[in-house]
Amino acid sequence: MITLDQLCAVLDGLNIPWANEGFSDDDKPAPPYMSLEAGFGETAYADNDAWARWMPYEVLLYTAQRSYDLEAKLADALDAAGCAFEKAITHLDGERLIEASFTVNVTE
Question: Out of the domains of life, which is the source (predicted)?
Fold first, then answer.
C-alpha cells in the first residue's frame, strides 16, 4: 500500500487534471480528467490493537471515448508506485463519458 501523498504524486505525474472529491460544474475541465474519491476506512486488528489502517480510494478517469492508452498510463503509474488496484469500466450514457475506476488502498 502507498500513502495518500504518494498517490497524489502519482496523479500529479500523469499531467491529467484531477480533483479530490470531483470538480464543481463551474470548473470541470473537458475530458480527460480524473477525480479522487474516498471510501470507508478499514482497520485490521492483532492482539487487541489496531495493526493496520487503510482507506480505499477510487481514482476515476473520465474520457469522452474509451482510451486504452490513458488507462494503461494510469495502470503503469500505479504499478510503478507499488500500488495494487482493481479496475472497472462504466459507460455514463447520460453524460456521454466513459469512467475507468481504479480502486486502490491507501495507508493512513
Answer: Bacteria
